[in-house]
């Protein structure tokens, strides 16, 4: 076999090769979590949003509008409240948790508060509850019971009922417990007092970093929330979240474990986007996770 002819690589040929390589190379992978900052720690962006069953402050169901708002948050983990799954006409009988997860290309865990028999034989169950969307793989999920006063019972009494969602996600190998909740809306705080006690009991069983996302239906200085702040730190964006137009109350929260045996979390920044895509505004926070103290 004759030897191959040696090709002289002129500067012009090298430039052409470089430009062709740049044009044909695949695009860089999207970065879903900010780079690890100097000094260690794992960055994670989280958010909470009461989506009002897909309706905006104008009362109009518009899942496209809410999808755009959620996408703009660019969060790694999102807790959702007032989520319908085949619940009724107000949300066009759609699975809002599943649709939002598909549109945002995220994993999903749905925790129903109510799960009723299908409206039509053989149809899906009519469900309403909370959900977690996550870019990180969900390695486990649980729907805990806390005290509730049912809105489906004509004569309700406080009783344990589901709808306190918990997932474990792995952030670069670190297990992180994420909880999503929606506390009682009534002026009388009695049910919320019981719900806070239930929440603390459930969360106390877990180790490592813990994040609570939710609509607590009470402001941060409400007496019934005071026990939560013994173990959790309020991300405290300092901006009201309800109602979405001209908000006057801060009732939506990102709260994180303080440290010690449970693994601390530093809040790098938190903010409340101005939007009327729901009757609440979302809360977002950039966190820095620290591994469990040894």
Question: What characteristics describe this protein?
Answer:
six-stranded mixed beta sheet; 294 residues; alpha+beta; disordered N terminus; Deoxyribonuclease I, Chain A; globular
Number of domains: 1
How is the biggest beta sheet arranged? 6 strands, mixed
What structural class should be given to the helix and strand makeup? alpha+beta
CATH topology value: Deoxyribonuclease I, Chain A
- What top-tier CATH class fits best? Alpha Beta
The helix/strand series, from N terminus to C terminus, equals HEHEHEEEEEHEEEEE
Number of strands: 12
Average pLDDT across residues?
A: 88
Helix content: 10-25%
Describe the structure.
- 16% of the residues lie in helices and 34% in strands.
- It has helices at 11-24, 63-73, 96-104, 190-203; strands spanning 42-50, 77-85, 107-116, 126-134, 138-148, 159-171, 174-182, 210-215, 232-234, 252-257, 265-271, 283-289.
- The chain has 294 residues and is an alpha+beta fold.
- α2 packs across α3 (96-104).
């Amino acid at each position: 076999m004759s030897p191959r002819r040696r090709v002289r690589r002129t500067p012009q040929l090298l430039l052409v090769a470089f430009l062709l390589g740049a044009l044909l190379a695949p695009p860089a992978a999207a970065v879903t979590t900010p780079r690890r900052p100097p000094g260690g720690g794992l960055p994670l962006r989280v958010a909470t949003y009461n989506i009002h069953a897909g309706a905006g402050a104008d009362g109009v169901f518009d899942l496209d509008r809410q999808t755009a708002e959620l996408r703009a948050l660019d969060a790694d983990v999102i807790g959702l409240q007032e989520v319908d799954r085949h619940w009724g006409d107000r949300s066009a009988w759609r699975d809002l948790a599943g649709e939002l997860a598909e549109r945002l290309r995220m994993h999903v865990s749905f925790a129903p508060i109510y799960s009723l028999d299908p409206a039509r034989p053989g149809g899906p169950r009519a469900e309403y509850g909370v959900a977690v969307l996550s870019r990180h793989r969900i390695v486990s999920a649980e729907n805990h019971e806390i005290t509730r006063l049912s809105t489906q019972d004509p004569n309700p009494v406080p009783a344990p009922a589901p709808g306190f969602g918990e997932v474990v996600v792995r952030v670069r190998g670190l297990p992180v417990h994420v909880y999503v909740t929606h506390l009682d809306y009534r002026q009388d705080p009695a049910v919320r007092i019981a719900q806070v006690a239930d929440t603390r009991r459930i969360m106390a069983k877990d180790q490592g970093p813990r994040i609570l996302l939710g609509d607590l239906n009470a402001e941060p200085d409400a007496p019934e929330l005071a026990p939560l702040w013994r173990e959790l730190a309020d991300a405290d964006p300092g901006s009201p979240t309800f109602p979405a137009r001209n908000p006057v109350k801060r009732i939506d929260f990102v709260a994180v474990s303080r440290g010690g045996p449970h693994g601390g979390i530093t809040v790098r920044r938190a903010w409340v986007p101005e939007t009327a895509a729901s009757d609440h505004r979302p809360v977002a926070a950039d966190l820095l996770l620290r591994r469990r103290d040894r």
